[in-house]
Write the structure tokens for this entry.
Amino acid sequence: MPSPKLVNGQVVYNNEQIRPIYSGNINDVKVLPANQIYGEGLFFAFDIDKIKEWSETYGLENYYKTTLENGSMGEFLASEMGIYGRAKYYLLHTFSHLIMKELEFSCGYPTASLSERLYYSDEMCGVLIYTADGAEGSMGGLVWQGQPELIEKIIISALQRASDCSADPLCWDNSDGLNKAACFSCAMVSETSCEQGNMGLDRRALVDPEFGYFKDLI
């Protein structure tokens, strides 16, 4: 698959197998099909400037580029990460999974009832963890966990739990699998809950003693 290109702030793919859902000029499209979901969620926004500074300080773009070049990452996702930032993606995506798993451990939410939405581009860096109406835990409990005193404990507990895995040291040092330093024991969730099929996860982006973004919190 050819690499996507950034044209006028939009990602464009030059491939006959990838076609838009509309025909004609994109500027003439006023309505797009969508699904409206009723439920509740927690939104986490990251400071893009701080993440950029963190990535540059530790040279993480080159570090993760080497990881992607071993062929373990899908070309589509690898190309997108090359445009918007590899370190930023690993940080955002892994954080999302760790919070979902921590909500399961500390609050009783099964991860299969939760979903993520990654807001990931050159201008966005955030994640929405939500549950749809009718799913388990969609009666106000998820929003309740967003109170400052509760969500702080959840985040710190998730980071502390991510420092160890029952599959370590193999999980922490693994560089040949689908994900680097991630498995179902520590960071992977149900594939119905993940936007990217559990690809692009690395606990070290968050908790590595040398370059982890949250290393000073644990």
